[in-house]
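Subject: sequence -> structure tokens, single chain

Hey, anyone have a minute? Need the predicted structure for the following. Not urgent.
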Amino acid sequence: MAASVDPGRRLAADGEVVRWSGKDVTAVSVALRLLDLRQAASDDDGYPLARASVMNLLVYASEPSQIDVAIATVDELALRHPSRAIVVASRPGKTFALDAEVAIHRHPLATHGLVYERAILRPAGADPEGLDTLVIPLLIPHLQSFLWWLAKPNPHDPALQSLAGICDRLIIDSSLGSASELHDISERLAPPGAADPVTPGFGRLVMGDMTWTRLDAFRGALARIFDEGDRAEFLDGLQSVAITGCRGLTHPVSPAEVLFAGWLSSRLGCTAPTWVPNGVSMRHGRAGHRVIFSFGGVRGYRSPRPSDVHYPIDGIRLVAGLGRRTLDLELRCQGDGGRLTVKESGHPLVRRAVPMAQPAETEVLSRELARLGRDRIYEEAMASAALIQTGLTG
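Reply:
Had a minute. Here:
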């Protein structure tokens, strides 16, 4: 039985924030406290604050350090994506108990508007399959629900299955897991009705991946390079793709490397991966010949500091040939941009800087929240990445 809560004693106004917290409570009582806060909160003229939420944003944090990251991120996104944010931070325990904190935030630029509401649920000893029952009373009806999964993206995780079952969109970070799990993620989250689905998985869920969004700058830069002149013709004569990950030489291939290779191979229609040293060989969909995709790390690699610009991959090199014409293209990360080197038959050597601004993590999440429909290119890239990973493991 949850302990009774005295809202008059626990309500407090702190500048632009009205807060409440309680221990050993129920999910229903937390929802009621949110209503109490809205009635207690008003602007400087005494007008009640109107809700401006455009979505329910669920955040699942598996580590204590992730809670602060989640709170800071949803606070920063309040103006662009005002939401009812619900952070679920499960803790181990022998018996079930729920502690909770709720807050209503009003941005200084808002006149009579409530920017967003935030609830932090700290269940101890909760059944992971029943986490949805803690969240459902807090959801605003008729709004889309997004799940930002901060833990390792394991499709078989009962907590993920429970929370994803009440959401419309799932946002994962495949880099938190290993490349070997891409095949499982792709199969489990296959869209319903897809040709030859292996496992329908979560069905209607629309999935996004922060690792994919971090690759935007690299994919955009490469596409612009092939848009120049008649370089696009060389894609039919592609012979090899060497991807260098941001990792040490002995570290395993990262999800970002395989996902980038999956994007390129899916655009070219590459199929039938077979193992080769340090990579896979795939049949070019249009030309029919084999293309080598290889993966490597950086000698003497050091993990970046939090303040450094961090790219998911360090560089890529493509070699192609059409008759007597050849193309050798290399794109490397350098500071907050890229460095391009192009050796092309009949053309002078090209060395130039390429704009490749890497977005901050808050911007990465913002882009995922703004993407409402299915990203077919990502889904195809993930499916191809899963094939590549299968080839890498023999």
